[in-house]
Design goal:
This protein is mainly alpha-helical and about 300 residues long. It has eleven helices and eight strands.
Length: about 300
C-alpha cells in the first residue's frame, strides 16, 4: 500500500567455505543445509534439526556456524508448538523458562497472566428535563477524542496505484463515494482502553498488539498503559486482526459505524482527495518531509 513504509531486513546466508574442501564433501554439507531449510519452512522442525546436525558432520572445514542459529530457532518452534498443544499455564511457563526473550514470549505471558477485564458500572440515567437529557451518551475517554476528530472526504475519481512498485501496478481508475476518516492516527491511550477491556488476544496466529521493543505501551499490574509521555503518540505494531477488532469495539462503544478504510479510501485520502497536488507521497515528493519511519527512530535512539 502506498504511503506506508516498513523496514525490510535481508538475511544473507553464506554458503561458501572459508577453506577449500573436496567437492563431494561440500556437496553433502550444502545439500543437507538446504534440505533442512526446506523442512523448516514446511513446519517439520524435528526433521530440519536432524538434517542440520548431519550437515555439521559432513566436514570439519565446512562452514556450519549458521546452522547453530537455525537449530536454535527450530527448537524454539518445537517448544512453542508443545506449549500450544498442552495449552496450560505450566506449559507456557516451561516455554518462558527456556526462552525468556523468545519469539513468542509476549504471547506466553498473555496466556499465563491474561489481563483482567475492566468492569465499568453503568452510568445513571439523566433526570427528565435535565441539561443532559438531549445529549448522546459520552463514550469512554479513550475514544472521546476520535469522536470529535473525524474529517469529511468528498468522494470522486482518481488513478490508484503506481508504476514504481510491481505490487502497485497497474495504475487504474477508481471512483469513491463520500466518507469520513480519522483526522489523526489511533493513539496509544485509545488503544489501551480497548485491550484493557478485551485483552490482548491472539487471532490468526498473531497477538492484536505485538509487544516489541518499539511499542510505547507497557503492562503494569495487569493493565496496559502508555509509557510516560507517549499517550498521544500513534499506536504501532497492531496486527490486521487487532485493528479490525478495535473498529468493532469502537462501534459497540459509540453506536456509530466505524470500520477500517479500504486501501482505495486510504490512498485517496492520503493524496488529498479532490484537493490533491498529485504528490508521490502524502503531502510531498520527498518521503523524509512527511513520513516518520524506522531510520528516524534509530537515529533518535
Amino acid at each position: 500500500m502506498r504511503h506506508l513504509y516498513y523496514p525490510y531486513f535481508l538475511l544473507c546466508l553464506l554458503l561458501t567455505c572459508a577453506v577449500a574442501a573436496p567437492a563431494q564433501t561440500l556437496g553433502c554439507c550444502d545439500k543437507l543445509r538446504q534440505a533442512g531449510i526446506e523442512s523448516y519452512n514446511k513446519g517439520d522442525y524435528a526433521d530440519a534439526i536432524k538434517k542440520w546436525e548431519a550437515a555439521k558432520t559432513c566436514a570439519t572445514k565446512c562452514k556450519t556456524d549458521d546452522l547453530d542459529s537455525w537449530i536454535r530457532k527450530a527448537k524454539e518452534e518445537i517448544a512453542w508448538n508443545r506449549a500450544k498443544e498442552e495449552n496450560t499455564k505450566s506449559a507456557y511457563q516451561e516455554y518462558l523458562k527456556k526462552y525468556p526473550k523468545g519469539k513468542y514470549a509476549a504471547q506466553a505471558e498473555a496466556k499465563i497472566n491474561p489481563p483482567k477485564k475492566v468492569v465499568v458500572p453503568p452510568k445513571p440515567k439523566p433526570k427528565p428535563n435535565s441539561s443532559n437529557s438531549t445529549q448522546s451518551q459520552v463514550p469512554p475517554s479513550g475514544v472521546r477524542g476520535l469522536e470529535r476528530e473525524m474529517v469529511f472526504v468528498k468522494g470522486g475519481y482518481f488513478n490508484m496505484g503506481s508504476n514504481d512498485y510491481d505490487n502497485e501496478k497497474p495504475i487504474h481508475g477508481v471512483t469513491l463515494s463520500d466518507f469520513y476518516i480519522g483526522k489523526y492516527e489511533v493513539t496509544n491511550e485509545q488503544f489501551c482502553h480497548f485491550i484493557n477491556d478485551k485483552g490482548n488476544q491472539i487471532e490468526g496466529g498473531e497477538t492484536w498488539l505485538e509487544m516489541s521493543e518499539y511499542v510505547l505501551i507497557e503492562r503494569k499490574n495487569g493493565q496496559f498503559a502508555p509509557k510516560a509521555g507517549y499517550a498521544n503518540h500513534p499506536v504501532i505494531e497492531v496486527s490486521w486482526y487487532g485493528a479490525t477488532a478495535y473498529a468493532k469495539w469502537l462501534r459497540e462503544q459509540t453506536g456509530k459505524k466505524y470500520r477500517l478504510p479500504t486501501e482505495a479510501e486510504w490512498e485517496y485520502g492520503a493524496r488529498g482527495g479532490r484537493q490533491t497536488n498529485d504528490y508521490k507521497y502524502a503531502g510531498s515528493n520527498n518521503v523524509d518531509e512527511v513520513a516518520w519511519y524506522l531510520v528516524h527512530y534509530q537515529l533518535r535512539r
